[in-house]
Automatic annotation (TrEMBL):
This is Methionine--tRNA ligase, cytoplasmic. GO terms for molecular function: ATP binding; methionine-tRNA ligase activity. Belongs to the class-I aminoacyl-tRNA synthetase family. Signal peptide: none annotated. Keywords: Aminoacyl-tRNA synthetase, ATP-binding, Ligase, Nucleotide-binding, Protein biosynthesis. The lineage of its organism: Eukaryota, Metazoa, Cnidaria, Anthozoa, Octocorallia. One of its GO terms (cellular component) is cytosol.
Length: 315
């Protein structure tokens, strides 16, 4: 197996930690983003790292790479969330959808002199993780190191390892269980040594160019956009509900239909005037026919099949 990545890539952290823990001894080849696209035309964008499992078999998601490598561990130590997909997938999706955009955009902003990132979403994520950790717990899932720990640590490492990027977070006071969990992992050689290798001793500052280059979406902007979108959807849903209630058949109409059926007195058919448009003050019901289907030569049955039912219903 071979891992293709570029230097100072924050996502490579978790992958190489998983490799070290599983003992898979993955080969690492550094490539430039443009070079990666040329060599691998299936890459629509220069997204690194990715793992070449074997010829023409690749894994592109860093979290999926970690899962695959840990599943290759001969001792089968990492089973607490690999075997329980509902738990493992929950944390992996939370990492991708919430933790990564919040932390990385916060870091990108904090790298700029005199500015600080939007802390609200970061603190929400940290509070969620704090609530999930049991008092004195060393790991997020169960009593053993797991895929979840590797993935979440990989995202939080640039934020938690250096205080200069923690403006306004007050980590030790508010998130003591998170910090205890993080410090416990940093005491393990697999985590501390890999972080030194990837950053070459430069700390999280080494990830600055990579994070900016990835152009990670500002979570505050996307959240506001999603909020507005949700409000619009709610308004449309309410409008649809009102329209649906207005279109429902009332009790009087049901009784009239029963009487007409029993007495064979069919209501006089309304003369249609073209163009046929909805009329104010009346219940307007649109009845359409099915799409015609013709397998070979069109014939009368095709017309009957698509329009007869609608015509009968309308009459």
């Amino acid at each position: 197996m071979k891992l293709y990545t570029d230097k100072y890539n924050p996502f490579t952290l978790r992958v190489l930690v998983a490799d070290r823990l599983a003992g898979t001894a993955v080969g690492v080849q550094h490539v430039q983003k443009d070079e990666a696209v040329k060599r691998f035309p299936f890459l629509k964008e220069p997204k690194l790292p990715f793992l070449e499992v074997e010829h023409n078999r690749h894994i592109f998601s860093p979290n999926a790479i970690c899962r695959y490598l840990l599943s290759c561990d001969a001792s089968k130590k990492f089973t607490s969330d690999l075997n329980n997909l509902s738990i493992g997938d929950h944390w992996l999706e939370w990492d991708v959808l919430h933790l990564q955009p919040s932390v990385f955009s916060f870091l990108v902003a904090s790298f700029s002199p005199g500015s600080s990132g939007e802390a609200n979403l970061v603190t929400e994520c940290l509070a969620y993780l704090e609530s999930a950790l049991k008092p004195g717990a060393k790991y997020i899932v169960g009593d053993e190191l797991s895929l979840t720990d590797v993935v979440v640590w990989g995202t939080l490492y640039p934020l938690l390892v250096q205080q200069s990027h923690q403006k306004g977070l007050d980590l030790n006071a508010k998130y003591s269980k998170v910090m205890a969990w993080f410090n416990n992992l940093m005491q393990k050689d697999e985590f501390s040594s890999i972080s030194q290798i990837i950053t070459e001793g430069k700390g999280p500052e080494s990830f600055k160019d990579a994070l900016v280059a990835y152009q990670l979406v500002n979570p505050v902007a996307s959240t506001r956009k999603d909020s507005n979108k949700s409000e619009a959807i709610a308004d449309n849903a309410e409008s649809d509900e009102i329209s649906y209630k207005k279109s429902q058949v009332n009790e009087q109409e049901v009784n009239d239909s029963v009487t007409a059926w029993n007495t064979q007195k069919v209501p006089k058919r309304r003369v249609l005037e073209h163009p046929i448009l909805p009329k104010d003050g009346e219940k307007n019901i649109l009845i359409t026919s099915a799409l015609p289907y013709v397998n070979n030569v069109p014939h009368l049955g095709n017309i009957i099949g698509c329009v007869l039912s609608a015509d009968v219903f309308a009459r």
